[in-house]
Amino acid sequence: MSDAIADAKRALRAELRERRSMRSEQGRREAAAGIREQLDALVERHGARSISCFLSTSIEPGTREFVGGAVARGIRVLLPITRKDGLLDWTVAEPEFDIAEGLFGQPEPVGELLGPIAVNDVDLMIIPAAAVDRTGMRLGWGRGFFDKTIGSMERCPPVYAVIFDSEFVDELPSDLHDQRVTGAVTPSRTIVTAEHPGS
User: Fold this and answer.
1) Structural domains in the chain, sorted by start
2) Phi and psi of 41, rounded to 5°?
3) What class of enzyme is it (predicted)?
4) What is the per-residue pLDDT for 199?
5) Residue stretches of the annotated binding site
């Protein structure tokens, strides 16, 4: 990756992280309700019975209500657990599960570990992001877990990144290893981008 691209990504991530941290508690609650509504509709539209999702941190668009509701409806939900080698293990979300701190301080479930290939069986992937652009390019938080996962899948299902409305932008800095997503889910809408093979 060129220094210019790396610097541009770092600066953008810092700006987005700061903007997220300034959101009010009320704004976060409203965003979580909107995300749940959009994700519920997305799952129904795809007829998904097995999905992957993530447990949102305190400043991310909230996914926990959605995960709980999906599990209650009998949908199999895989949640990621970070590994030191840069890959992701997965565990099946249960109606009641403990949450621990992951390698980088993010919330992760405690449960039986399934290997990285467990995600190959899902009908739909819902992943975190800092931003998404109109071509489906996703800006992650710099550790590459989801880029590696998506890039290694033989048959990648539709992949949607969860962001706030203002984080859907015209263009993002990107490099060769960056993976595009099928679309973005925000509190107010679900956007399908044109350039991802899973769309």
Assistant:
1) 3-192 (3.40.50.10420)
2) -65, -40
3) ligase
4) 43
5) 9-13, 55, 60
> How far is 191 from 189, CA to CA, in rounded Å?
6
Distance of CA 167 to the CA centre of its chain: 13
Q: Report the alpha-carbon distance of residue 176 to residue 111 in Å, rounded.
A: 34
Please, is 2 exposed, middle or buried when counting C-beta atoms within 10 Å of its C-beta (0-12, 13-18, 19+)?
exposed
Closest CA to 165 of 127, 124, 131, 193: 131
Task: Look at residue 4 and give its three-state secondary structure.
Answer: helix
Residue 181 tokens read as 């997503």
Q: How far apart are CA 183 and CA 191, in angstroms?
A: 5
Whole-angstrom distance, CA of residue 194 vs CA of residue 61: 24
Closest CA to 191 of 130, 115, 136, 113: 136
Predicted TM-score (pTM) above 0.85? yes
- What type of residue is 89? D
Q: From CA 159, how far away is CA 183, in angstroms rounded?
A: 7
Query: Which two structure tokens, joined as six digits, stand for 77?
Result: 């939900």
Cβ-contact 135, 195 below 8 angstroms: yes
DSSP 86: S
Known binding positions for substrate:
55, 60
Binding residues for ATP: 9-13
> What is the per-residue pLDDT across 87-134, written as a single tens digit (0 to 9) for each?
999 999 998 878 888 888 788 988 999 999 999 999 999 999 999 999
